[in-house]
Amino acid sequence: MSDSRLTRRGLLKGALAIGGGGLIVAATGGEVIAASSSLAAKNMPTPYTNMFRRPPVLLPYEQGVDAKGPFARFALTQKVGTASILPGLTTKIAAFNGIFPGPTIRVQQGTRAEVRIANKLTVSPLHGGEFSTSTHLHGSASLPQYDGYANDQTRPGYVKYYQYPNWQQARTLWYHDHNHRTTAQNVFGGLAAQYHMHDKYETAQLPQGEFDVPMIVSDMAFNADGSVAFDHGDNAGFMGDVIMVNGVPWPKMKVKPRVYRFRFLVASISRSYRFALSTGDPFYVVGTDAGMTPKVNAVSSWRHGAAERYEVLIDFRKYKPGQKIELKNLSNKNNVDFANTGKVLQFEVVADSGPADTYKIPTTLDLGPQPFSNRGAIEVNKLTPDMAKARRSLRLQRKNGIWTVNGETWEDIEKTNFQRVLGNPQPYDVEMWDLINESGGWFHPLHIHLIDAKIIARNTTSNGLSHAWESGGKDVFYLGENEHVTALMQFTTGDGNAGGRYMTHCHNLIHEDNDMMIQFAVGDVNVNDPVASDRPKPDPEAAERPATYAPGYPLGT
Predict the structure, then answer these.
(1) Residue 4: burial class (beta carbons within 10 Å; 0-12, 13-18, 19+)
(2) Do residues 12 and 181 make contact, with C-beta atoms less than 8 angstroms apart?
(3) Is 499 helix (H, G, I), strand (E, B) or coil?
(4) Are residues 46 and 125 part of one domain?
(5) 304: burial class by Cβ within 10 Å (0-12, 13-18, 19+)?
(6) Residue 274 bridge partners (DSSP)
(7) Helix (H, G, I), strand (E, B) or coil at 471
(8) Do 390 and 266 share a structural domain?
């Protein structure tokens, strides 16, 4: 159960900060809090002066082959660290291995991963309570007890060994905190990072190595002393005035005249984005939440909500060395914009001494066979309405100041001892879900755990279908004001998993914490109990495990 000291409406009141120093806040008409950093002019970052950097790639501390096949073991420590984000100041963060973003984990399809996550945090400076965590690998078909269930809490001084099967098709995943009632603060404070799963089809068709670039976009606000500032207002949302990419405010990236693949993740807790290039040139969308798209679509911009992942190609071959191209944020309805939140990053083209890039941008992609198709698994893009065994509706509403799904909250789930479920499909069943935003003054990025889904209808597009950029498998669904999405999904457990309970919630993390989350179950409601099946244990290691990282690329590239 969640800490009884943390109530829904009393969790955060007024301006709170890691380290103090004051926060200038204002509620907007939609009640979201807009936070203008109270920094001195000399401490406010200037766009396009800091160099781009990539998060380090974590290497396993052990790998090999056992009776079940290849495996790799990784170790992460949740701890306080110090970041150099602002000129002349340092910022205290709480993060994986003490860095934000945390290290990228890379695995091959079919290689099981065990990730040891030790909580060496103590008291949260945001809410003053115990700094408990629960880590969710977002995009993974994990067993419930390793899925980051909100009430599966790892307390300070404890450790949990998360097991990830990695049987799905190649994709960009991310891991982040999911602790009930404090997810927004914990992610905002630094507990987020990418996780890449590769397979031979993705490796053969999309840029790799230097030209495969993680892009974690987030916003933040700061107090005068450089500390992270946060306010939840009336539980509606929080948006800062500093845009960061991989933890760097408005960076400048040096690119060669080649085709690059960018793995975009929005790790903001409330803000959404609409990315565009200052030249008006296209992005080529080659991947969504569930991996590669069967068709490659060229778009001049795309709408990107919290937790969504989009993989895009940008062709820099037409530009001359020295040319600069802005990655802009055109924003969306009900965002709160500041002087520089329309800027994200600046690309600067540099000379390339290597051979000319002959990569041909594809029009279609071969995703390969769906794993476990011999057990009834269907590749998500091949799902059709006639396969659906049930149709369900999820209505997102605000009632009496509380965010709800079908009129219910996670508190309602807790009161049933976690037995209440939205539905109970069986393994490999296909269902059709209608996702309906009835809180017209706000947008919701709705996340459904476990599944990949295909959007077959959207009420706000000209043709009634999905947007061009979301034509691949999805697990987060941007529900704009009064939008209605219909999605097909299969409850594929693949690796022999008998199922269990999984969450679905808004990924505006302030909405999730207050209390916009319910659950469904695959098969037996009580199999693989997400809290009791594999509880965190006291950490026998007093010291942090040293981390080993792969060689990186030069700063700015």
Answers:
(1) exposed
(2) no
(3) coil
(4) yes
(5) buried
(6) 303
(7) coil
(8) no
